[in-house]
Amino acid sequence: MKYSFLIAFLISLAYVTHAQQTEKRYLSGTGNDNTVNWQFYCTAGQNSGKWTTIPVPSNWELQGFGKYNYGFAKDSSRGKEQGLYKYAFQAPAAWKGKRINLVFEGAMTDTEVKLNGKSAGSMHQGSYYAFKYDVSDLLNYGSGNLLEATVSKHSTNASVNEAERKGDFWIFGGIFRPVYLEILPAEHIANVAIDAKANGTFTAQIQLNTAGKTTDVSAQIYTTNGQKVGTSFSAKIEQGNQSVTLTKALQNPLLWTSETPNRYKVEFSLLQAGKPVHVVTKYFGFRTVEVRQRDGIYVNGTKIKLKGVNRHSFWPESGRALSRKISILDVNLMKDMSMNAVRMSHYPPDDHFLDICDSLGLFVFDELAGWHGHYDTPTGTKLLHELITHDVNHPSVIGWINGNEGGHNYELDPLFAKEDIQKRHVIHAWEDFGGFDTQHYREFNYGIGNYNYGHSITLPTEFLHGLYDGGHGAGIEDYWEAMWHDPLAAGGFLWDFADQGVVRTDRNGGKGPLDTDGNRGADGIVGPYREKEGSYFTVKEVWSPIKLEHREITPTFDGTFPIENRYHFTNTNQCSFTGKLIKVGGPNDVVKPVEKTFSVTVPSLKPLEKGALKASLPADWKTYDFLYITAVDPHKRELFTWSFPISLPNKITSSLVKTDGAGTVARTETDSLYNVTANGIKLSFSKRNGLLKQVGNTTGTIPLTNGPVLQEGVNNFKNITQRTDGSAVIIESTFDRKSSYNTVQWTIYPSGWVKMKVRYFPDGYFTFMNGVNFSFPESEMKGVKWMGKGPYRVWKNRMKGGALGVWHKAYNNTETGEQPLIYPEFKGYHANMYWCKFEAAGNPFTVATENEDVFFRLFTPAWKTDQWHNYEPIFPSGDISFMQGISSIGTKTQRNETTGPMGQKYAFYDYEKEPARAKELTLYFDFSGK
Length: 930
Prior knowledge:
Jelly Rolls; TIM Barrel; EC 3.2.1.23; Bact_Beta-galactosidase; Ig-like_fold; carbohydrate binding
């Protein structure tokens, strides 16, 4: 009996101690990876008209209810589709006399709440904002309670639909963020807003609920691991006063930036008669954000440029219902791309996403929803208050956005400063407003008006609109170099982070394929499940805060790498650099590459300074093929690994190609063909134009034919002859300045190796691409292994992001952003070819080159397009190509040629077909089947 009393006393004491802190009691789960089943009834669409259960949080479409619709789509269920929710729970008797708030972190879109049959308060309208009801007087303490919520997918408020439901994104319904009870003492701290400046000045505005009693509020700042910082500070609140401001000055606090996300925590205590009644803990960072008109954005007195991306809250299997795990994944992916900023398009995110931005370091522009329409003023005023109250203390939030692309309610602009203790700047996305020109999707050369030659700070809140494999990395280097060197440019935000491919539970048993609503949702740098696409690596290199200048590794190379520090707050000596040499094998080698590491001396360079890395190369460095330099940031995150060629293609090819053989080269001819046999290799060439017509070996036929066909050049190979040169046979065309100025020459060696040399003039002053094509049946191709840059394909305006090495990939038919999501994609252009082994069914063959900067092209992807035909890339004829110039690619909103110089055509001056001006391409073929 005594033990029972003691246990009860200890439990009671523990509860009293715990009750001093705000307690959260979840009624739902905490995210899409942790849900609780509620009773559910859907009024329209799939699985409607019956009571069942649904996980909360979730969007009901992804659970098999209602109707899918994209924002642009006409929705026949508008006004009809509702979700009725019920959930029973217990309220301990010990809660009686306390303040109990019922909190919804997010529900789409109109939400009416009842508790035990009574209304909890007025209907909430607006999807992305946390709202709460005081339900202290509605609860049955010590017994059961029934929570009921009616959620309407579309609002009865037309302005809410204009702001949220008619956007260029998927429209979902349901309780998609957590629901919980907030248990506080009857007298408590109701809200805290913090302003912590870079000079160490700390200010907190505290709202109280104390029933008018005289109380004290004290505060103590700590490091995040619990060490006290300075002394406590307090203020007395006189009777009747329900707010207080606390201030404190700290000496030399560690500052918060995207590069140094130093955070603190502060503990506020509400005291009555010297005893704590309620304790609230908040995390924050010391930092000062300034906008200096006609100049730029300054953080802690340092001018910054934003390297950002737009991010929707989205996951294929759960819609807008996410988790902390996904937030960590997304922020890490952004940081790995050297991004320092993210825009919350087009609505506020989950609280845990901002927590991760705080802790890992990303600048955030937080957004009041509004796509091309906006909230009316009464609704917008309420939602703006909820937005800022919820997100005010996050140091990552450096600015607010009042709507997107015309969805701006100007009457709300003054309210941001009224609500925000930090008075953060407000911009309008796609408008010249508040000193910022944020125009979307400007062409690279635009600027005669008020953009590059204007007076506003330029900050495109959307630029390089991704579509499939276009945009993002394609064009970013041209844009970023212009932004970096323009004093009025504050950076920009790419559109957008992830492909929005949603699982359709109403199709194919919910097994896919993922639906991006045509080309509307395939806009990401990463795939729906965060698969890394080619542009991911290009952005990573271009936005690396350590910039390595172009460097040729010549025999006189002394190990010096010129660099520029493009950090804002970090010295290069805080980073670490390592070097590696690598010697690779040939097409048929299965041994691992030979590697040797070397040290790299790091200079002390302040932000924006230039200097040089110094590599301590070993004496035998010239015997290796490639050199790698890897940079790692102070947080042990790889910035990039740059690769440089030591061995050039002519050296590698000369070691591969065998010209001598024990046998002889035999030749015959028919009316139309020259036939040549060497070491088991059989070849036939057209006597009319010199093209390869047939290839075979002892295993069978290799279906590589009809080449070389010139791309953007005239196939005027004429007067084909044959001759011998020692033990080799040569078949070649005859040069004539007027009628056959392009020439082809085939050399067949006794070893069976075949050399092809083409000298040609591109057909025109400007060309999109040039090189030669061959025919090959796609069905016969199983994979490729190559030495060169990889593993992703490239475009003329997206050359960066890859690495030199030996790569392999099996055949796939992936279209970027479409299922099957197999990366890297097989088809397309591949850069810096040395050799490539084509794994044809049963009979492989290898092609090598002695030329630098050769691309090989694998087939033509089944391209989709956009309504303006901006994205459509250009591919050569034939199936397999060896190119010396390749096409660029556009974006959803721009043609390839308007994304900058790299997207434009090649210029070639032929001086009236002067032979010395011809382009020359030499390839070597091994058709032995090895």
